[in-house]
Structure formats: C-alpha cells, structure tokens
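tokens incoming
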C-alpha cells in the first residue's frame, strides 16, 4: 500500500511541476489529467485495501469526469487556436 501512495504522491508532484513550468495550455490539460489519475489511483487502491466498492465507484465516476474535462478543454483550445493562432497561457491571460 505504501508503494501505491508513493506513486500517487509522485504523480501529483509531477503534475504540479508541469502546471508551474509549462506555458502551453495543452500541457496544462495533461497535467490536470495526471493529477486526476493520481486521485483515481488512491480511490482504487483504498477500495481494494478496505474491501469497499464505494472507492471503485468514485474512481469510475472520476475517470469519466476526467475524460469529459479533457475533451471539452481540447475543443475550447482548438477553437481558440483557430481564432488567434496561439495557445500560450501567457498570451491568453494578456488578451
């Protein structure tokens, strides 16, 4: 169980580092996906460890929310790129 928690913390730190360092919005979406994956990993292994199906159910719902989040974000980014020809986070915040 400790290895799973360590992996989850490592994924969260990796996602936060990407959020801080990358100015591209596609990388920001991927970083949010990595953080949501870490949360799902915690729910799955907590459900298995505690022999409870609630954690697995919540993980299933979070997987669908993460997929929806990514698809909507990519659609918004593609539409913005067609309008402005740039998707850098610094450029979007200034305009």
């Amino acid at each position: 169980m400790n290895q799973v928690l360590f992996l989850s913390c490592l994924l969260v730190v990796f996602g936060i580092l990407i959020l801080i360092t990358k100015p591209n919005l596609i990388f920001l979406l991927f970083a949010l996906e990595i953080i949501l994956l870490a949360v799902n990993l915690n729910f799955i292994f907590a459900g298995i460890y505690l022999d409870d199906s609630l954690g697995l159910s919540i993980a299933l719902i979070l997987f669908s929310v993460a997929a929806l989040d990514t698809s909507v974000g990519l659609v918004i980014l593609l539409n913005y790129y067609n309008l402005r020809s740039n998707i850098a986070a610094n450029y979007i915040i200034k305009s």
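note: The mean pLDDT is 86.
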